[in-house]
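Homework-ish question, so no full write-ups if that breaks the rules, but can someone show me the predicted structure for this set?
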Amino acid sequence: MSAESLPRPIVPFVEFATLLRGEGFAVAPEQTRSFVAAVGLLGPRSMEDVHRAAVATLAPPPERREEFDALFRLLFLGQGLAATAPGAPEEEELEAYDDRDGGLEPPEPEEAEEAGGAPSGAERLFDRRFAELSEAEALRRFRRRAPRALPLRLSRRLGPSKGGRRLDMRRSLRDAVKRDGELLALPALARRRTRRRVLLLIDVSGSMKEQTDGYLRFAHSLSRATDRLEVFTLGTRLTRITRALRRRNPDQALALASTLVADWDGGTRLGDALQAFLAVPRFAGFARGALCVMLSDGLERGDPAAMIDGVERLSRLAWAILWLNPLASGPGYRPETSALAAVLPFVDRLGDGSSAARLCDEVLTFERRAA
Amino acid sequence: MAIRRSIVGIDSPDRLAGALRDAQYLADDGLATAGYLALALGKPLLLEGAPGVGKTEGAKALASSLGRQLLRLQCYEGIDAAHALYEWNYPRQMLAIRQAGEDYVNIYADDFLIARPMLEALRHPSDTVLLIDEIDRADHEFEAFLLEFLSDFSISIPERGTIRAQEHPVVILTSNRTRELHEALRRRCVYHWIDYPDPTREAEIVMMRASQVARDTAWRVVAAVGALRREPLAKAPGVAETVEWAEAATLLHEQGAPWPTAFKRAVGVVLKDQDDLAFIEPRLDRILDESAA
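A: Not a homework solution, just the prediction itself:
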């Protein structure tokens, strides 16, 4: 529906919804309708009524409330944004790359994979390949054990169970009918368990150079062990490499993944990459109820506020956050940077990420701390 | 979208605020507006806020000011349809089959259906208020299931067919925001973020809820609680704690304790965490002094 065909009094309300969407608020058409209806219901006697109706029906998340109010003032009261917008405007938008077909194009062409001039990322990968040989053994053991050790969640479905606490009355009744009303056994039910989704976020910035190869191999092993896995790399940009890692052959999978990731060993903008991750609803949905494994040293240049906020939001989405840090190799390790210390309350465990073998141990033995 | 301008005589946010006040609940303008819109638009009301700001109390007050029965569904990890919707009374069904012998018996009659809060709300939408409490404690799966209920207000029971509400029931959801709710759920609701009340309102609440408390005491308690909430505590005191502190201190004072001591001795009703108590202990005198000013 074009703006011209709307009744004139409604136009600003619809425009406001459009403006919000442009700023990354999730506003459904249904909510716009409620908004218009709500304004009508309230009179409106004053601009305050319009504002309250907007807050109640468009439901801005509390942490973005100031931004929401600023946009409201911009559209309805004609006040400028510059003075009120709390977050400094970003000089460049972080883009999110997705390896799904039809998504954004990967930054480098894929056919380079087998051709002579392999892309630099893959090249470096292959060079580092033989660095740690015992790692292969650790990963093989991990693949064997992971299916039983990865966290489970309760499914909504009930299934027969010996130790279940609820009687399977339906089955009892049916059995009884077969035997002319006689009950011989009391079958029990319990909720089934299914595998929890795992979200793997890999920091590929320059400071993590030594680890990225091992981390990717670990990611590949993990993707062989569970099909409920999403993998992203964070650097100067965000890249989804889940699909690339699905290849059976680890070398092929890693080569394919490395053609997708265009920001190997680049600068560190962990906070911005996290924010970009959370801003795409489909990606953020991957974190919901998942075990989130973060492979990063948490070194953030510049203002750590974006990173702290990102981890906090992630912690509210995820079931648990396991942060594995290559610097945390000793048992007495305490986070030194203020950014890492600040995100610690949102992290369920800060563990040792100094080698792929350590990663395997950490993930296999992880248990969520009691909330 | 069915719009009801007025529901049992409540036709504006101010009326609702008045009705809630009669039910001993002081709502601010934002809450009254959100509540009125939820009633008028026939949508669920989603209340989010820190523990102890009065979300559940608000729902209770709304039910009593509408003259309706409150059906409370407390969520917890692992809650499922049998607890939220309905269950068949299997032992009774079995007995009925035995008793009937050769005769026919309808074991899916109402007698054998145990209605849980959500089904009860659908059957009597105009007499009840459904409170789905602490939805953030339930699993994501339950939340998804709730979506279906909240958009159609119907439940299908395989043995009986679909039960649909005659009108949209009044539904209130609360969340402590220990985790993010699904966007789709927020979208279906009228939303309000409840904050701690401002000092004037909180003092009013204290005097309304605790009849024995003097005005000065109420103000002092509110100021002290306000200061406590600014400290980095594990569990910030809620409104109920403020009221209890005022009441407890008044009681001790009547038994002969002088003022600052009465507050200090009653601090156990406002801080209920050993670490918090240990942290506040050395600062408590200063906080109480400042609140007396």
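Now go work out the reasoning yourself. Hint: The two ends of chain B are 53 Å apart (CA to CA).
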